[in-house]
Structures are given as structure tokens and as C-alpha cells.
Design brief:
The chain is mostly helical. 80% of the residues lie in helices and 0% in strands. It starts with 7 loop residues before the first helix and ends with a helix.
Amino acid sequence: MSAISEPPEVLGHMIGGALTGTFLGVLLSYGLVGPIAAAARHRREAELTLFICVRAGLGAYLRGSPPQVCAEFARKVLFADTQPSLAEVEVATTLSSQAKAREASQPA
């Protein structure tokens, strides 16, 4: 406001600088910093989902639930795009139990 008495040429230069700074700030915040922050948030959430899944399964186990129920608790925490189907969980647990039975039956 102190430059209000300046001639139009000086005011135009000052207003142009202010508009350029404002445009650059908006461009950098929405075009550079925003996408970087969104990518970092997405990466953090993807990492935390694994730990939350394990926490849910262990919590169910500590409450005395059977292993199949523990797996279901852990499975329900995952997002729909990464959540395995019930059939996939059943196949994985069946294969795991068959491998353990095979190891137990082999002589040492």
C-alpha cells in the first residue's frame, strides 16, 4: 500500500511480480508438492496395511480363536484389491498343513 502513489509503470511491475509469485506458488503446491505428498501417503498406507493385518490375526489368536478364524480376521483388514478370496486362503492353509505333516512323517 505504500507504493500506491507510484506511477503506473512501477505499479505494473510490482503487480506483475506479485501475480507471478502467486502463480508459481499455486503451481508448485498443486503440481509438485501435492502429488509427492499423495504418493508418500499411499506408500505409507500400503506398508501399514501389512502390520495392521498381522495385528488383527495375532489379536484373534491371542483371544483363543481357531487358526481359520484368525486368518479371516487378518483377511478382512485388507483392501478389496489385495484381499485374497476364501478359496485362496483355504488352499494356502491346506498346503501349509500338508507340508508340515510331510515334514513330521519323515525320519530325522
